[in-house]
Amino acid sequence: MSFTIVETGNIPVLSINADCLPEAWEKAVLAVWKEGVSVKTEYDKPEDPPSKDATVIITVVDPFAEPRIHKNFPGGPEELEAYRQEVCNGIHDHWIDPVAGKWTYTYHERLFAYCPTDNLLDPNALKPFASFDQIYYIVRKCSETFHTRRAQAITWMPTADPVTDDPPCLQRLWFRIIEDQDGQPVLNMNSHWRSRDLYKAWYMNVYALTDLQRIVAEQISEKIGRDVKVGRYVDITDSLHIYGSYFTEAMSEIEKMQDGNYKARSWQSDHPAFQMMTEEAREKLAKDPDWYAKGKG
């Protein structure tokens, strides 16, 4: 006997397997759209329909396989590069100023300078520990012991985040190295999320985080004097959702995805147009990290 989600009250658990990022995004959008449960969010306006929501595990066999760039994600090459640098290089860490009503965190700050406190809105709040570079620890730990299960970085501050308006969605990164059949080290990475905007945020999140995976692999390579390959990426989200407020906007894209031909909507990462716009964004961001936020002026 089978039961519907409404009858059981159980959140659906979906599993996606894909060879590359564009394929993973399209498969996930379609799966959540078709099989997700309808549920309200804390950000809904009265007129918004409930979101489509599911717990989802996504495996990308090779996060740098081509095509790597989806042409139709809600954004563009310039925004993608700005976000990648925000996560990997911390170009927007200076936006963190909760006392002034600005950001309470960036992922870069939480990963590279984790510093727990009991009140993010109080500049004089207790900070019992010095800031800690969790990515440096991961590089060191993986370099010493490939099979360690302790190479992880967290973002959540249970003492402070729950009462903020926009707490971190990303909760944890976990890394482990396995040697392949030729004896080459391969860096695997898992990311764990409490909540995730599938339609507007997932692709950019994963593009940036897998680049961080690449950076960690390169830094481990330098430490051990051996080439470390980037391995599979696994993305685990407790609430992966398509907001009801996006339904009208998303429908045209979802209709295109029905044919399964994600390659027709994707670019190789060396596509001339993508390369040109990305390089221009890098030049502008090098001069002004806030260039994109200011409207690409």
Give a brief rundown of this model:
By secondary structure, the protein is of the alpha/beta class. The protein has eight helices and ten strands.
Output the helix-strand order.
HEHEEEHHHEEEEHEHEH
- Strand coverage percent: 15-25%
* Broad structural category: alpha/beta
Low-confidence stretches: none
The whole-angstrom Rg is 20 Å
State the helix count: 8
Taking the sheet with the most strands, its summary is: 8 strands, mixed
Shape: globular
Report the end-to-end length measured between terminal Cα atoms.
60 Å
Relative helix content: 25-40%
Number of beta-strand segments: 10
Mean pLDDT: 95
Task: Outline the fold blueprint.
Elements: H1 5-8, E1 13-18, H2 21-35, E2 37-39, E3 51-60, E4 69-70, H3 77-88, H4 107-112, H5 134-144, E5 152-154, E6 170-179, E7 185-193, E8 196-197, H6 202-224, E9 229-242, H7 247-257, E10 266-267, H8 272-287
Parallel strand pairs: 1-3, 7-9, 8-9
Antiparallel strand pairs: 2-3, 3-9, 4-10, 5-6, 6-7
Helix pairs in contact: 3-6, 3-8, 5-6
